[in-house]
Amino acid sequence: MRNGLSKDLIARVLGGAPKYTIEQLEEMFPPRNLPDGAMVTRFAPSPTGYMHIGGLYGALIDCKLAQQSGGVFMLRIEDTDTKREVADAVKIIEESMHRFGLAYDNNPVYGPYYQSQRKDIYHSVVADLLERGFAYPCFLSAEDMEQIRENQKAAGFATGIYGEFARDRDLTENEIIERLDKGGVPTIRLYSMGNPEQRIFCKDAVRGSIGFPENNEDIVLVKSNDGLPTYHFAHLCDDHFMRTTHVIRGEEWLPSLPLHAQLFRMMGWVAPLYIHTSTIDKIDEESGKQRKLSKRKDPEANVAFFLQAGWPVDAVVEYLGNIAASGYEEAKMKGQVESFWDYEMRAKKIPMSGALFDMKKLEWWAKEFIGSLSVPELVGRVVVWANEYGTDINKMQVADEKYLTGVLGIERDNPKRVRKDFITWSQTLENVAFFWDELFVPNTEYQFNQDALREFLATYNPTDDKDTWWAKIVAVAEKTGLKNGDVAMNLRVALSGRTNTPDLYSIMNVMGGERVIKRIEKVIK
């Protein structure tokens, strides 16, 4: 550990005296008054693009563990990477959270929740590290660091700023002042005392204790260009003062665990428990091998895809929940719980490898969910989707809600025998498109029996009950020498253009006599 800097020099290095002491910060952000076992979790995305399905998966786990334990789930925007920030990304994140039912509680006591607005907090903490000799101002330029990297590679050393390669770690106060006088603007680096030949043991709440080489790299804590913290330092400050108890994050962050443990120990703070989840993978169609979901190759990597295509958000949540919570599907099928939110999720059962995203399995969850909806619920969701995301044709289909209700209500009067052929709101409207004359496509390949159709029209009455209607079909079959099913199939194809449909009597009732007569007459002509 080096000698700490004086308060005056710290103020000059940071561009001003720190606003708070550590003691004041502890008072500003007191421990939360929560029951024993309550988890405080956070979803902390960077606003650098669209919302990834892997992010939604992690946020769902965060939200569920906090909710079931009587704790708190927060949304924190990690917007310190100003170069990569994308316009409207925060709006997309917040909208996605809302759409998928992930309610967060950003208590203003522990805010602000944008890292770019917490600069005074970071500077106050880094001032403490500078004063105690655990951090130092570094004046290495980009060119300097590139030269160091090249030298390290040539000599076979690990790249990075550490040990003998950390040129400025032992500058005296006079040397620091001299560089500041010449206009130098330093980064603030960690003064690492780690020895990679020694091991540090860090705990993952699911994987258990894991041994790592100690971190010896003098990582940047505060950047020189904007005075904002790096991810690692912001994570330290925010998770401590927001009183986060559990950090759920992707397994790609596992190598940073020893560094984060080192930072918390350096501050004398208790680190949160970490849970490193598996990445969301898929089976590649070409190679047949498992790979990560790709932003470039896989439209389903983008959460917006599911909204635009009309996937029921509840079904997506159910499916992701089933990936995260071993045993959930079985409990649901046995009727022990109604939804993922009712199921007691165990952190230790979260998969630690190869969580697969299977669109076919998602289809099953979607069919099951839509099959559980009442007709008014189904109609309402289809209408909302069509008016927000649908084509002009979709909007036309939902314009007459009374007619749409009749169409979507077919074979849904018995909850135990509901047809489960609807997957998305888009596919639902496509599935029933033949009910609208503008979308009806006649079947030009089917060999109709004209006599059967004429005989049916001769006695057809739209007010007939189902028994009377069927008796007339039987009579037509006897008169034409056909089977009952053949007469019904002639009518089915004439009215829908398809050989496989829901109940034919219900279709005719919903279409109404005028439409039924016109379609049969067109086939006869």
Observed structural traits:
about 525 residues, mainly alpha, Arc Repressor Mutant, subunit A, three-stranded mixed sheet, elongated
Tell me what you see in this structure.
- The protein is mostly helical and 525 residues long.
- Among the domains are: 7-25 and 119-277, 3-Layer(aba) Sandwich (Rossmann fold); 375-435, no CATH class; 450-524, Arc Repressor Mutant, subunit A (Orthogonal Bundle), CATH 1.10.10.
- It has 22 helices and twelve strands.
- It has helices spanning 7-14, 22-28, 53-68, 89-99, 119-132, 142-155, 173-181, 231-241, 257-267, 303-308, 313-324, 328-333, 359-371, 375-389, 392-399, 401-408, 425-431, 450-459, 466-480, 484-496, 504-511, 513-524, and strands at residues 40-43, 72-75, 135-138, 187-190, 199-204, 208-213, 220-222, 246-250, 273-277, 280-283, 290-292, 355-356.
- The strands form five sheets. The protein has a three-stranded antiparallel β-sheet with strand order 3-4-7. Strands 11-10-12 form a three-stranded mixed β-sheet. Strands 1-2 form a two-stranded parallel sheet.
- Helix 3 (53-68) links the parallel strand 1 (40-43) and strand 2 (72-75).
- It is elongated.
